[in-house]
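$ ./design --mode recover --in tokens.txt
reading tokens...
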């Protein structure tokens, strides 16, 4: 930084006693040095007010959704033009979701309830490989809407943990009648749930006020699939904090790019690598334990994490005997807000079994938090390092955790408000300002 600034100002570096040919040259050089110092102070002042954040995590953990939420909260959301452009992506999500379900029905041996729907299935599968946007006609969407009402399709959907299906499939298929209307304009919630694969580095910048002063945030969202993670190191420089997204509902799923690898185990391993990375040794991590709403649905359907923990007793403590403390229960219930369509708050559960469901949900969420914190504390090592880390390795950074639902704007805004002060304080501490 110093060398670049001096070069821009046209100075040399050697200002020793033999460098200057005359008193006049020395005077000019000292004036330039003062200019350099002033420029560096201004650069540092501006740099301290512009905080660089990284969104990291495995694929489909919710990073891009958090970026969209930042646009909604801090940059006046999406223009009408952008909303209209999203219609095609939403239609693609719908078509691809139904194709995936129909293919899974064949693999799982699940028949259609109504034989007359077979011709609709055949038409859709024939159009599966067509990338032309014009191929997603209203007739095709009508076929999909009819198929979605078939009990065989519903049965296959209930087993979606056995194959790769996007989280928003049910959301869009349930509202397909509305999406088919000619005057349909995607809502914020529609855009948040629209799935588009992140293959490069996305960037967003916005200002927020802290203690009456504007602070600029630059947020980088990098794809989380294995083939894209090599790009992460390109943006490690000058990072104020890392927002690490972990899908806590993924314990019964495998990776899209590796059907043999459990998604939750992969998330734990990547988190450990980021936490121990020598380039990020002084960078604090804000762990977003995301998709709590999907976790609640899985727990209610009886999809327990113990199926995974029993297979890996060397990694996970016994789930059945785990008991969260009263403080941990209060912490979770106080932070969890479930999303409902437009992101409005609602009570955590419904129905006669609500207290039982809530108890299991709280236990599972707190248990998952314990696993991540064991990595932070060095009590769990998934990937042994070549060299033993010293006791003071983590003294210059911290890890704070938050229970999040990325599609719930209220929840995300509350979490981001809590993160902001911590990020600024840690950034100032790092530069020795406080």
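writing sequence...
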């Amino acid at each position: 930084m110093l060398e670049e600034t001096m070069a821009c100002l046209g100075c040399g570096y050697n200002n020793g006693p033999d460098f200057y040919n005359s008193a006049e040259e020395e005077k000019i050089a000292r004036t330039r040095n003062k200019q350099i110092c002033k420029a560096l102070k201004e650069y540092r002042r501006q740099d301290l007010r512009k905080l660089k954040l990284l969104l990291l995590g495995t694929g489909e953990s919710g990073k891009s959704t958090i970026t969209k939420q930042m646009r909604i909260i801090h940059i006046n959301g999406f223009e009408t033009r952008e909303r209209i452009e999203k219609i095609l992506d939403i239609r693609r999500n719908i078509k691809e979701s139904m194709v995936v379900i129909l293919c899974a029905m064949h693999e799982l041996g699940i028949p259609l309830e109504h034989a007359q729907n077979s011709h609709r299935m055949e038409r859709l599968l024939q159009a599966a490989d067509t990338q032309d946007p014009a191929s997603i006609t209203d007739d095709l969407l009508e076929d999909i809407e009819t198929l979605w009402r078939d009990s065989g399709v519903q049965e296959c959907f209930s087993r979606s943990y056995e194959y790769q299906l996007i989280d928003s499939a049910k959301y869009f298929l349930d509202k397909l009648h509305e999406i088919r209307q000619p005057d349909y304009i995607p809502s914020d919630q529609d855009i948040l749930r629209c799935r588009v694969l992140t293959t490069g580095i996305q960037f967003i910048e916005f200002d927020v006020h802290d203690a009456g002063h504007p602070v600029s945030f630059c947020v980088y969202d990098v794809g989380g699939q294995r083939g894209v993670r090599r790009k992460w190191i390109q943006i490690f420089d000058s990072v104020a904090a890392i927002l690490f997204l972990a899908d806590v509902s993924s314990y019964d799923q495998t990776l899209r790019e590796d059907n043999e690898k459990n998604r939750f185990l992969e998330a734990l391993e990547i988190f450990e690598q980021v936490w121990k990375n020598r380039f990020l040794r002084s960078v604090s991590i804000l762990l977003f334990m995301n998709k709590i709403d999907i976790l609640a649905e899985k727990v209610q359907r009886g999809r327990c994490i113990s199926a995974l923990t029993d297979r890996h007793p060397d990694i996970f403590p016994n789930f059945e005997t785990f008991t969260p403390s009263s403080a941990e229960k209060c912490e979770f219930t106080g932070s969890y807000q479930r999303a409902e369509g437009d992101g409005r708050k609602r009570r955590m559960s419904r129905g006669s079994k609500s207290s039982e469901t809530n108890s299991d949900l709280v236990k599972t969420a707190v248990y998952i938090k314990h696993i991540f914190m064991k990595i932070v504390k060095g009590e769990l090592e998934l990937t042994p390092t070549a060299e033993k880390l010293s006791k003071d390795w983590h003294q210059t950074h911290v890890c704070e955790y938050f229970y999040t639902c990325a599609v719930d704007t209220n929840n995300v805004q509350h979490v981001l408000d809590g993160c902001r002060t911590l990020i600024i304080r840690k950034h100032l501490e790092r530069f020795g300002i406080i």
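exit 0
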